[in-house]
Amino acid sequence: MQKVQKAVIFAAVITSFITTFMGSALNLSVPDMSGEFNVSAGAIGWVVTVYMLIAAAFAVPFGRIADITSRKLVLALGIAVFGAASFFSVFARGLISVVIGRGAQGFGASMIFATNHAILISKFSENERGRVLGYATASTYVGLAAGPVLGGFLNYNFGWRSIFIAGCAVSAVVLVSVIFGIPSKNRDVASEAGEAESKAADGKKKNFDITGNVFFIMALLALVYGLTDIMRNSFAPYIACAGLLLFAVFVFRELRTKSPVIDVRIFKESPAYTLANLAALLGYGAVYAVSYLLSIYLQTVLGYNSQTAGLILIASPAVMAVLSPLAGRLSDRILPFFLAAAGMAVTALSLLIFVFVSEDTHILVIIGALLLSGAGAALFSSPNTNAVMSCVSQESLGVASSVLATMRSLGHTVSMTIITIIVSIYIGDKTLKDAEPQMLITVMHTAFIVFTALALIGALCSMKKPKKKG
């Protein structure tokens, strides 16, 4: 393995870890922040929401910038912004400062999401991509698993600011590796065909469509905010609809511009690409809120404390971390579309088990379903990424990676929106912790029926094979 390839793997693995670790670790610190700043639960929720909004809205624009300039430059800038925002947040003395810091982290994360997988894929041949994607995916799940454990330790012993210190330190290390270990040019060092394609692309005039990017950012901000706040703000549904209308304007414009932000024609010309992205949206929509629901169920219904509940929930990401590299290797040998479909089918089965939980369900059943869910997610994630990337050219890897990241973010938003709507129907203004156990179980049953359906549709979408070239 070449020195450059090692540096690229290191950068992809560490950035995949730190972006997910920060989110899962800070979730445990939200109550402490709320108490320190004396703010409501709704207000402190912006610590999570602002990151998701900014990261989702700017990923695709930065993907386009990376494709026409230098992916290394955008990645390095993203890591620097993420680290600087972490440093800023250490000294926050109020909620507004933390929200600004988290928003800046989301801005940096959007650059990271736009480039870390794109650079990783561009430096390896097609028959190695699944393997290295498996490493990055495994790191993502290690971050999710380590967040509650390591984040809880840091928060308990040193306070929530120590989590931002950790984020700053890790960012500094990986930034040095990117600056000195990765070349600046967007070319495939492992493939002559990729190098030739990159040279051909360099000869073309490339422009940055400012108007198109503005439409995209406004559309995504409106849609994600509208969905996130849909049951708390009477104007939220209209804001979400405005986001959809802006998306329609964006697509109409992109079809008529010579340098589109996203070449939307590929969604029509390559059904496999379209359905693989749709499968990502549905898949992440089906699983993202599972840990949220189960954490409440384990504590409110089964009576476990928060620490024990957290340890139980680690079962799923731990399995994902172990199996993701294997799934990545398999996707180099088996058509990744079918492998992703199998993973989503396994995920659907695990979600179906949760439909039948009750106050008397044995904890081993819950753990078994979590392990099954982790195995399904591992089989889906890196093969799905491999499937999406196999449908685009070398010069479009940044945008393709950004679109996929946006699908994941929208999936997360859809998942929590489903929970919000179901909770408002059955429980009203009460919090989940204040709800009667039987009512909470009813909420879970309804939610998991919807999530199972999403996963099954995602499995069907994943089965579409691309047309053979030539």
Give an overview of the whole structure.
The protein is mostly helical and 470 residues long. The longest helix is centred in the N-terminal third of the chain and has 30 residues. The radius of gyration is 21 Å and the shape is globular.
Secondary structure tally, helices: 20
Helix content: over 70%
Beta strands, count: 0
What's the SSE pattern?
Answer: HHHHHHHHHHHHHHHHHHHH
What gap, in angstroms, lies between the N and C termini? 31 Å
Category from helices, strands and their pairing: mainly alpha
CATH level-4 homologous superfamily of the largest domain: MFS general substrate transporter like domains
CATH architecture of the largest domain: Up-down Bundle
User: Could you please say which CATH topology of the largest domain applies here?
Assistant: Growth Hormone, Chain: A
List keywords for this structure.
3 domains, Growth Hormone, Chain: A, 470 residues, mainly alpha, globular, single chain, 20 helices
Structure summary:
The protein has 3 domains: 1-203, Growth Hormone, Chain: A (Up-down Bundle); 209-258; 265-470, Growth Hormone, Chain: A.
